[in-house]
Structures are given as structure tokens and as C-alpha cells.
Fold:
Amino acid sequence: MTVSKRLEQPKDKVSADKNVASYTKYHANSATKHTQEKPDANPTHEQQNTERSARKRQIKNTHKQQKKKQKAQQRSQPQQINA
Structure:
């Protein structure tokens, strides 16, 4: 299609409406394709920070639980007094 054909106005109103409708339909679809949200390949700093703090919290909690278990075992064992 040449530029001169594209610039020609349709002779009747119906074909003009069809041209406008097809133009807007095509461009609306292409616009939505470009604006659709894509999953982040690179997470934001906030996401990284929350994930990091969650990992730290989990490690801290497991460490606390291990310490509690060790103390409980020490209490349950009779203490030997060396004199």
C-alpha cells in the first residue's frame, strides 16, 4: 500500500467507520500488549530486603530453639559436683 492510497478518504460513510474501527482496534490491542504487567525478572530492593529479613528471622528463631533445647537437656541431666 502506498502513502497516497492511505491518505485517500473513503467515498462513503460506512467504509470510513470500518476503517476507524479497525484502526482503533488494532492500535488498542498493540497498546495493551505493551502496557501489560510483566513479572519482575529483577526484584526490587524492597522485595530483596523483605526476603533477606525473613531469612534472617528464620535463622534466628531456629537458633533460639536449639539453645532452648540444649538448656532443657542440661537441666534434665543431674549435675555432678566434683569435690
Notes: The chain is about 70% helix and 0% strand.
